[in-house]
Give the backbone structure.
Amino acid sequence: MEDDGGLAANVSSENEWCKIAEDYKRIYLPVTYSLVFVLGLPLNGAVLWLSWCRAQRRTCTAVYLANLMVADLLYIATLPFLIINYSLGDRWPFGEVFCRLVRFLFYANLYGSILLLTCISVHRFLGVCYPIQSLAYRTRRLAHVGTGATWALVVLQALPTLVFSEMGPSDGRLVCYDLSSPDNFGSFFVYGMILTFSGFVVPFLIILICYSLMVKALLKPEEAGSGLGAAARAKSVRTIIAVCGLFTLCFVPFHVTRSIYFFVRLRANDNCSLLTGVSVAYKMWRPLVSLNSCLNPVLFFLSGGSNRIRLIQELWHKK
């Protein structure tokens, strides 16, 4: 996401300040968020309609994907506020409530996406490694229970952002702090590290374990009666590639650069050049994590079968 309110760090004495120029955000952020909005809104809307309203049979994967699209659309709905904010030179004109809501929905989308991708990965893992034994656990009822638990956990994880995110003055303008006000950054650091561990590290490890076991199973020769045919194998390979691609492009770089930025800002803020470097790296990558809202719909086309293609063809012929 966005601004800390124009970071200024004390570099060596109380009279010396490290001022980080952030003029690049006036063009970079509105362009990036406009691209995500233009691509993400129709993609997620179309996939939600196709997977939930037009599908003849709602599978467990369709339940997870529909919730993933809802999470994306909730976040995409906040992007016009951010586009206007940065087009005005990082001035927040929408008030305190929308400031907190926009920040909350960013984190809800981010960690909701990660947890729902974890659910999809576990579901696919059971189908590949235990296709017969896991039939009782791969049901739509349990998929709804899983998504409900996911939303509850995500809300609990993101709730503190409603407290930390606030409006405040910075260089003569009123800004909406992304992380927290400078005075509360120490407390936010602790929360941010806990959120990174619970919302990213743990789910990522679960996904890596699932995919490692899936690859091992997929490399074995196909056995009669295994319940895993060529179509299921191909679907599993596509899911692995798509989810790993999402983490490689969006989630891993974001959390790595953010964690480094947190530590440097808290522990080594007397080194202005280092602080400037990690700040720019983090803030340049921060809006790119929003691209997951455009890439999540790719899972629909990669994990779906020929019925998805027929639906798209049907819609095309009706034009």
About this structure: The domain at 22-165+182-219+228-317 is CATH 1.20.1070.10 (Rhopdopsin 7-helix transmembrane proteins). The first strand starts at residue 8 and ends at 10. The chain is about 70% helix and 5% strand.
